[in-house]
């Protein structure tokens, strides 16, 4: 890594936590004093994602938004190559969505309150009755009109290759009856591989696929649905990129 690239990577590494805290504070300020709704608040994390991408020298392009119907909730389901996926999606996926996050994050001072103000969905990853209640509540929020993003692999891929999908996201999709949207994130593994901390400049492509209707699936078919979604995401990854700008 050249000296200039190294300097920029170190600067980005130092600024990410600062920008995250600053965005959280601004979110709470507008939420408390100006009564901003969760929908209005989304402009703040979107700016957060974009400024981190631009500081990193990363260009993000999005394809396939024409597959979506305005005003309809979706469960966007993407491969997970890198921690940078979050910045790219938050900054450049121009749809109104929320993250599903483990409940422990909502207890983090300032950051957790900002997540609540933004309407993010709390998920209990423990086993048992409380976990099922958490999934039911998440499914209801989604069915009522809140789009979300999930990473069905459950963790970042160590080599950038697509891993098997877990069934948890399928359970929420079937419970809510909301379509799953296959989505491919291409390029983030080279920018920030799992286990690395210094970002490299590069290009990212987010490809949105055709929604998969879930209202005809029952819970016994959750693994079948996971396989169908996996095949759709794999197909998007393998498709040659379109030419031109978004």
Q: Tags for this entry?
A:
single chain; 246 residues; alpha/beta; Glycerol-3-phosphate (1)-acyltransferase; seven-stranded mixed sheet; 15% strand; globular
User: What fold name stands as the CATH topology?
Assistant: Glycerol-3-phosphate (1)-acyltransferase
Instruction: List SSEs in N-to-C order.
Output: HHHEEHEHEHEHEHEH
Distance between the termini: 30 Å
Structural class: alpha/beta
The percent of residues in helical segments reads 40-55%
Query: How many strands?
Result: 7
Number of domains: 1
Read across the widest sheet, the strand sequence of neighbours is 1-7-6-2-5-3-4
CATH architecture: 3-Layer(aba) Sandwich
Brief account:
With 246 residues, this protein is of the alpha/beta class.
What secondary-structure arrangement, pairings included, does this model have?
Layout: H1 3-33, H2 38-41, H3 43-55, E1 58-63, E2 75-78, H4 84-92, E3 97-102, H5 111-117, E4 121-123, H6 129-143, E5 147-150, H7 168-176, E6 180-186, H8 188-191, E7 202-208, H9 222-238
Parallel strand pairs: 1-7, 2-5, 2-6, 3-4, 3-5
Antiparallel strand pairs: 6-7
Helix pairs in contact: 1-3, 1-5, 3-4, 6-7, 7-9
Walk me through this protein's architecture:
The protein is an alpha/beta fold. It has one domain: 3-Layer(aba) Sandwich (Glycerol-3-phosphate (1)-acyltransferase), CATH 3.40.1130. Strands 1-7-6-2-5-3-4 form a seven-stranded mixed beta sheet, sandwiched between helices. Strand 3, helix 5 (111-117) and strand 4 (121-123) form a beta-alpha-beta unit. It has helices at 3-33, 38-41, 43-55, 84-92, 111-117, 129-143, 168-176, 188-191, 222-238; strands spanning 58-63, 75-78, 97-102, 121-123, 147-150, 180-186, 202-208.
């Amino acid at each position: 890594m050249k000296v200039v690239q190294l300097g920029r990577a170190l600067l980005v590494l130092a600024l990410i936590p600062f920008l995250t805290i600053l965005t959280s504070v601004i979110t709470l300020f507008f939420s408390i004093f100006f009564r901003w709704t969760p929908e209005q608040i989304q402009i703040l994390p979107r700016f957060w994602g974009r400024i981190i991408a631009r500081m990193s020298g990363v260009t993000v392009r999005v394809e396939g938004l024409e597959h979506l119907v305005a005003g309809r909730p979706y469960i966007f389901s993407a491969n997970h190559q890198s921690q940078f996926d979050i910045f790219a999606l938050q900054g450049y996926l121009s749809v109104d969505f929320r993250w599903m996050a483990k409940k422990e994050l909502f207890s983090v001072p300032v950051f957790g309150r900002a997540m609540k103000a933004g309407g993010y969905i709390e998920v209990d990853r423990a086993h048992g009755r409380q976990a099922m209640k958490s999934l039911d509540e998440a499914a209801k929020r989604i069915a009522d009109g809140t789009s979300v993003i999930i990473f069905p692999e459950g963790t970042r891929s160590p080599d950038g290759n697509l891993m098997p999908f877990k069934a948890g996201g399928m359970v929420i999709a079937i419970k809510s009856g909301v379509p799953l949207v296959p989505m491919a994130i291409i390029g983030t593994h080279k920018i920030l591989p799992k286990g690395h901390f210094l970002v490299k400049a590069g290009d990212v492509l987010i490809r949105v696929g055709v929604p998969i209707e879930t209202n005809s699936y029952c819970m016994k078919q959750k693994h079948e649905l996971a396989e169908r979604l996996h095949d759709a995401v794999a197909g998007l990854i393998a498709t040659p990129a379109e030419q031109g700008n978004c």
